[in-house]
Specification:
single chain, about 550 residues, alpha/beta, GMP Synthetase, Chain A, domain 3, seven-stranded mixed beta sheet, four-stranded parallel beta sheet, 27 strands, about 25% strand
């Protein structure tokens, strides 16, 4: 089937010109589901998720909650249109420009996200924890000219702007509810605009968002997704597994900068007329339990570590409203699934997805979940377990997971990584799985150097790069060390320069330094000082030897 799309609406052709060559794209399948077959050639995912849902009888229904504030679909549409006017009329945004969004999960972040899409821009949503050096890489990689930033997070954003030599021309500030025009420039400018905005008539295959994900070679990778892709992720997992309905109220921990959070806490609810509750700050498992009870939340999106803690403290809380629980970010241990089910009666859906694929592609319906298994390829997708040559392996034999469907990997200006992730039309997410005869997949291991810790993907080389900027560090190697509470922790092996003394004070100085250079959750929780590091004869670091050492020390096989 020819790919739907038609002439681009983008006047700024940067994104299209930096897609990988077409022969390196994965194969896409739009025939397996009626919803996919029905997509038109012109689609604006912002208009579909917001305008069409409001027009379908949900205009006066709640869509977002924060504290005592509740926004309706109609109010969100109105504000997003006024922000779109600011971008186009005041900031000169043209379709195809990239817009960086920097904020915690708030209603105003969602309004900005929709405004960018309505105006034909490309959303580049970033985590609030990122530091200036990380933001600089994103701004330069995606050639970003516009940024909308929460007022409370401006320090690092301003430093990034200063360090990118004028590339970032327009920088506006907002507050969580957009209601402080005296303090925030975007709040003020939007308040002065009339409502109503003519949505950009984007093609289905115009780029809608660029999502950055930590890579195994240091700098994060940039993945590119079309307007059609955003709608496709909603019409596969949540639609076919009954994971979103108008009566639902969702909450969770993943930031909207992660596509896991974007789908579970914005796109999925809004595709089906549901609502999402945000919170002022990071939520602990104890706070999530209390929030479920207080606000009658029906669905949660969070990491396995949080479910494990919640299982231990669920007794005595009224969790009768909670029905739909999704775990992703790392594999869900069988013991965690069983403990949570025993404590609450709720079967957690273990979803396997990736930023490259946009969202979940292997899972199971709630009533079909099996402890210790991720599930099967969801409707719309195919998944196989293959050897290094791409040949199918027999049931039960571990191998590389290969996937394809209506979404897939397109890296921004990165042919080398594209050729690794996509082979002969199949996406290779980097996981080792075994598939049973009935199609259920059992997780075995990661196939790369990514460290998965408490639901976060952390690049070891990125942490190494930060450590090496410290004057006391001569060499270092960073790995994931098995940890029962967090799956893994970041551990650094450090060779100090002459004159620097090992000890607790040096550990603390290095940890503080890393926290100041990159997002704090990436810092090495354990540092071991060593006289040298294992290398090949050609000088290549042998991190696998360090990983094997830690497995042996922890009693692993």
């Amino acid at each position: 089937m020819p790919e739907p799309g038609g002439p681009t609406a983008h006047r700024d052709r940067f994104a299209a010109e930096n897609l990988p060559p077409r022969e390196l794209w994965p194969a896409f399948d739009y025939e397996s589901l009626p919803e996919l077959r029905a997509y038109p050639s012109r689609m604006n995912c912002g208009a579909i998720l917001l305008d069409d849902t409001a027009a379908a009888g949900h205009r006066d229904r709640s869509v977002l909650h924060l504290g005592d504030a509740t926004w309706t679909y109609g109010a969100l549409r109105d504000l997003s249109e006024r922000i779109a006017r600011v971008l186009v009329e005041d900031c000169g945004l043209v379709p195809g420009n990239r817009v960086l969004l920097r904020s915690a999960n708030t209603p105003m972040l969602v309004a900005c996200w929709f405004a960018v899409l309505k105006a034909g821009g490309i959303c580049v949503t970033t985590m609030q924890l990122l530091r200036a050096r990380e933001l600089v890489h994103i701004v330069e990689k995606a050639q970003i000219s516009h940024a909308l930033c929460d007022l409370a997070l401006m320090d690092e954003m301003e430093e990034a702007r200063d360090r990118t030599g004028g590339l970032l021309e327009h920088l506006l500030t907002f507050t969580p509810l957009g209601n402080r025009p005296d303090d925030a420039s975007l709040d003020r400018a939007a308040a002065e605009k009339p409502s109503g905005f003519a949505n950009c008539d984007t093609a289905a295959n115009d780029v809608a968002l660029i999502a950055f994900t930590s890579g195994t070679t240091g700098n994060p990778k940039a993945t590119m997704h079309f307007h059609r892709d955003v709608i496709a992720m909603c019409d596969c997992f949540p639609r076919y597994f009954d994971m979103s309905a108008p009566k639902d109220v969702f909450a969770g921990t993943p930031p909207l900068a992660f596509t896991f959070g974007l789908g579970g806490l914005t796109a999925f609810p809004m595709r089906f007329g549901a609502s999402t509750r945000f919170f002022p700050g990071p939520m602990s498992p104890e706070e999530m339990i209390e929030a479920v009870e207080r606000y009658r939340i029906t669905g949660l999106y969070t990491a396995p570590t949080a479910y494990r803690v919640m299982a231990d403290i669920a007794h005595g809380h009224d969790l009768s409203s909670l029905v739909k629980c999704v775990s992703a970010g790392e594999t869900l241990p069988k013991a965690t699934w069983e403990a949570f089910h025993a404590a609450t009666g709720i079967p957690i859906v273990d979803g396997l997805g990736s930023t490259e694929m946009l969202h979940i592609f292997v899972a199971a319906a709630r009533e079909e979940m099996r402890a210790g298994y991720t599930g099967r390829a969801i409707p719309g997708y195919r998944a196989r377990v293959v050897d290094e040559a791409g040949e199918d392996l027999p049931p039960g034999e571990p191998g590389l997971l290969a996937v394809r469907g209506p979404t897939g990997c397109r890296y921004l200006d990165d042919i080398e990584r594209q050729q690794v992730y996509v082979r002969k039309g199949w996406n290779y997410p980097g996981d080792v799985y075994a598939m049973e005869e009935d199609g259920y997949f059992r997780y075995v291991a990661r196939a790369d150097d990514m460290i998965i810790s408490a639901g976060y993907n952390i690049s070891g080389p990125e942490v190494e790069a930060a450590l090496l900027d410290h004057p006391a560090v001569a060499e270092c190697a960073v790995i994931g060390k098995p940890d029962p509470a967090r799956t893994n922790i970041v551990k650094a092996f450090v060779v100090l320069r002459e004159g620097s003394e090992p000890g607790a004070e040096t550990v603390q100085r290095l940890q503080d330094f890393v926290k100041a250079e990159i997002a704090p959750y990436k810092y090495p929780r354990e540092i071991e000082f060593v006289p040298d590091l294992p290398k090949t004869e050609t000088g290549k670091m042998q991190r696998f030897r360090l990983r094997e050492q830690e497995k042996d020390d922890s009693g692993g096989g």
